[in-house]
Amino acid sequence: MVYLLQKDRLTREDVRIEAATYDRSTKTMEFTIFNSSIKLGRVIQWELMGTKELQTGGGFPLFPGSRRVVRTNWESVRAAETVSLRFADFSLTQALSASTK
Fold this sequence. Notes:
101 residues; 0% helix; Immunoglobulin-like; mainly beta; single chain; four-stranded antiparallel β-sheet
């Protein structure tokens, strides 16, 4: 399937952050993004924020009806508090209630 010229663009309502997990033993954070639409989107940049910590990452495609799991090093003793996703037409920021392993 080719998504070169879509009539409709991905919107904030099409995307949600489903889960977040912090693993103390490996010092990693993981969060899952879900695209509930039939539209292709592209995350331009993501950010995890804690009380004094900030971790950023590069972009990736978000395919229609799919989930994307993002894993990153997280050196803090506490889980990240917020995640932000930047797309071409909008940004999505959400508070996290991460489960801890």
